[in-house]
């Protein structure tokens, strides 16, 4: 096992550090920047199905569901196809309206999650076109879907998903951009800008791992006795907040909630005092000014602010108690970059609390029962 961990203390840390490669592997042969094309067999062969879809329904559980939420933002922004994202467990039991014009995308690292599998079977029975985004080759979900794209993240051992999540975001980005190009809802200029930026993401992940690791490790020490955490973000980074909170809950057993920053005033603000750590994801692209006012509201209530901002940030950094800088990227790819310090934060808090990071209590890597 020590050899498999490749010198890292835990699989989770190894997998966090593998992300420049796993994202690169997921894009390999698909994103051809020099030729200006995205080549994905699964989509290529069924472009009309997607383009003519009345809507796309994404079903998933856990971290994969968070990736699905970001997928909704991506597909609606670039391909202008309406998207709904559902927990597989809810979808399967609520007699959902599904038609033959629907495309249903299941996202699953393991490809074995029972609820996701059952929801897909239901959609298939009703005649929808079903598509899979799985990490495990030849898994049950990969086998029953009409088509799909594998994430090539490699085996993920740590129960808390890290590299599979960012690989899912990579696939969803490719799909959204490809469909946008095909549908004519994305200009050529914007297409080139997006693929060039996506191609640069593995380098930026390398950079963010290098530049934030030690700092996040230090910050973590101050929060080992925290009892609650709030994670806030807006737009594309609202799901980042959900995922950040989930990571912390899963492995450190600290209660954490993710919220859209603007919704704070409808409840969570009542919880803020000097004992409440609040992680704010505030890259400069995307509602930055609005986030600044949220941060001011938190400060006025003495909350402890850990801000994830872009390099060179001034406004939020001046107010925050702790600042983690990440490289700038397009707003739509910022969840991929922002995920890294959030993964590291939950990892180190859990390690300092003496938790079993790779196999947290009560959780399973693959949930094959209801
Ligand atoms: C379990 C795992 C999570 C995962 C979820 C969905 O809860 O612990 O890490 O996100 O299942 O799994 P899937 O394999 O369908 O992505």
UniProtKB/TrEMBL annotation:
Domain SIS residue range list: 46-185, 219-360
Enzyme Commission designation: 2.6.1.16
Record has Transferase as a keyword: yes
Cellular localisation: Cytoplasm
One GO term of the biological process aspect: protein N-linked glycosylation
GO molecular-function term, one example from the UniProt record: glutamine-fructose-6-phosphate transaminase (isomerizing) activity
Purpose of the protein: Catalyzes the first step in hexosamine metabolism, converting fructose-6P into glucosamine-6P using glutamine as a nitrogen source.
Protein name according to UniProt: Glutamine--fructose-6-phosphate aminotransferase [isomerizing]
Natural source organism: Chryseobacterium lacus
